[in-house]
Amino acid sequence: MKVPQPIATPEVSPVLHVVHPEPVPPPGDPSALDEAEARKVDFVWSGVMVGSLALVFALLSVFGGVAVPVLLALTGAYAFNPLVTLLEKRGMDRTWGTSILFFAGTLLMVGAGLYLVPVFRDEAAKLPGFFQRASTQVVPQVESLLGVSLPDLVSQRTAELGEKASELLQSAGPTAARLVASFAGNTARFAATLLGLSVVPVLAFFFLQDYPRLMGRIQDLLPRRSVALVTQRFREVDEVLSAFVQGQLTVGAILSVLYAVGLSVARIDLAIAIGLIAGFGNMVPYLGTGIGVVLAVLGVLLSWQGPWQLAVVAATFIIGQLAEGFVITPRVVGEKVGLAPVAVIIAVLAFGELFGFVGILLAVPASAILKVVLSVVLQRYRRTQLYKGSVQGP
């Protein structure tokens, strides 16, 4: 007896399917493109990056009220994404990780405010007494130290400054109230500024929460054949930015400790606060040091105990700058970033002049992107026949 054979069912193709006319190169395989294709992709990518930077700064100039909060939020999301990703890898939901990070940041800001506001208030209250002491104690010490006799006008002016300082402190409240009322009179501008500042943390929260999804959608827009090479170029930009930011934060922390210890030895009341400002302000070369020196000298004058304090302050900042320039930065940041201090200073000055405070914030990221773009263009140019000198004449 024959066993009936099962009836073969026809193979049904899916209704929705994706047709790739060519095999898609696997991720991370830029060599899937030949030299001519890779050169074309790199030049197009370089042009798009430069054009995108120009578009960003054009939007800042035209739609600053909208563009600035968005850019600040994106910058914050990019900076804190590694922390949230680390929490996510340890099993925490990304939303919870973002919430915990924002809660910790809020507590840190509130704690810093509770610590700094009373200290600054107490230091401001010392100003009248300082000017009075300066006219009777500091000026004679300076005369004895320099071996010269200062005019009586110095003492008179110093005493007058003390009286003016007392008057300013007494009228600080009403003056501030009048300034706030005058600024609030321009309702539209006041509301727009307030809304822009308040929306930054909200936007940063959602950008940080959806950061992987946003990056995935951007990657989905890339041409399939060149996605690996373009992704590699973006990874190079990310490595430069990450190395610079993380390295500068580390350098800032080391310098903050060094400055805080030195200024504490000089018996300055705001030693920790000035050390933090000078240390982390060093992300803009020499800016943090300059501000720190000014604040430290003011702190010495407000707690004057002798010329030795100025000597300790000078030694602290000289040692800090030498250690940062010859030991800390080369070892911590190294040559992975490749952004020279002179280039950073020029970029900060140029972008700050053109776009204000936001330009200062974006100067280093923009310079890092342009550095990668320039290195890619030069790399491709050196592979051309024009550079090698093999171009045949007509």
TrEMBL record:
Membrane topology category: Multi-pass membrane protein
CC per GO annotation: plasma membrane
Principal localisation: membrane
Signal peptide start and end residues: none
Location within or outside the cell: Cell membrane
Keywords: Cell membrane, Membrane, Transmembrane, Transmembrane helix, Transport
A GO BP annotation: transmembrane transport
Keyword Transport set for record: yes
Domain of life from the UniProt record: Bacteria
Membrane-spanning intervals of the chain: 53-80, 100-120, 188-208, 311-333, 345-378
InterPro entries hit by this protein: AI-2E-like (IPR002549)
A Pfam short name: AI-2E_transport
Family per record: Belongs to the autoinducer-2 exporter (AI-2E) (TC 2.A.86) family.
Protein name: AI-2 transport protein TqsA
